[in-house]
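Hi V.,

You were right to ask for the full record rather than a summary. Here it is.
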Amino acid sequence: MPITNPQVAGHAFLREMYDDSYFPDHVVDEGRAILLQLCERIEAGQPSDLETLYGLTQAATEEFNLLDREFVAAGSGIETVAREWICDEFCFVASSYGFADADADADADAEELTAGRDC
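Predicted structure:
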C-alpha cells in the first residue's frame, strides 16, 4: 500500500542513522521499513484516538527491539542516540497524522509512543 500522506511520503526516515557509518545501511533499511509499515497501518486503520495510535506504535517499537539483534550482529547496536533518533521519527509520524496539534487531547506523548522500547 503506497503512503498517501505527502509529508510522510517525502520524509527521509532515519537520515541520521544513514549518515553515521556506525549503523549498517542494510539494517537501517529494515528500520525504515518498520516506520513505513507503521504509516501504512495508520493510513489503513485511521486511528481516531491516542489509545489506538499507541497500540500501533507499540507493535512497531517491538519490531525495533527485535531489530537491535541484527544491529548487534552487524557490529552495531541501537544505543542512546539512535533511540532518540528513532523516537523522533515516531513523533514525526504521530504529528504527520494529526496527533500533535493545539488540542491537548490529540497530543501524542513521546514516551508513550515508544513505551515498550528496550532500554
